[in-house]
Amino acid sequence: MLLGEFNHNLDTKGRMAIPAKFREKLTAGAIITRGIDNCLFVFAPAEWEQLAAKLIALPMAQANSRAFTRLMLAGASNVELDSQGRILIPDYLRKYAGIKKEVVVTGLYNRIEIWDEAAWTAYKTKTESSSESIAEQLGELGI
């Protein structure tokens, strides 16, 4: 289970340390890809396989299915943790997420999200100010 919020910095080569409590889930490597809301998603291989199977099963005739599948699969890259627990975030993914140096790493149960720190702060502020409305809408879904 991946939970928590951590602040980290990228080094000059574009590497970032994975929080120590997340490393055990990524010993077999990880897949990093474009996420939603201009963040990056990081999955353990088993979680990625489950998601990829769902994505490739989407109907190709629907434009939204094709677009989302392309967003997730075409942007994906295998990454390995080095001896210091760091991953190299490919340049095209850093550009997509607007990541320069300071990042926030969040654990969302089955995936990790990597955010530019300023983007995370803005997103979190907006979401926190709408929490009652969001909760009410989710309540209608039985959550």
Biggest beta sheet summary: 6 strands, antiparallel
DSSP strand content: 25-35%
The CATH superfamily turns out to be Transcriptional regulator MraZ domain
> If you compute it from the alpha carbons, what radius of gyration comes out, rounded to the nearest whole angstrom?
16 Å
* Helix-strand pattern: EEHEEHHEEHEEHH
What's the number of extended β-strand segments? 8
Q: Strands of the largest sheet, in order across it?
A: 1-7-8-4-3-5
Percent helix, as a range, is 40-55%
User: Could you say which overall geometry the principal axes of the C-alpha atoms support?
Assistant: globular
Query: Which regions are unreliable across 5 or more consecutive residues at pLDDT < 50?
Result: none
- Count of helical segments? 6
**In the CATH hierarchy, what is the architecture at level 2?**
3-Layer(aba) Sandwich
- Give the CATH topology: Chemotaxis protein chec
**What's the N-to-C terminus distance?**
20 Å
CATH class: Alpha Beta
Number of self-contained structural domains: 1
Could you please describe the fold and organization of this structure?
This protein is 41% helix and 27% strand. With 143 residues, it is an alpha+beta fold. It has a single domain (2-116), classed as Transcriptional regulator MraZ domain (Chemotaxis protein chec). Strands 1-7-8-4-3-5 form a six-stranded antiparallel sheet. Strands 2-6 form a two-stranded antiparallel sheet.
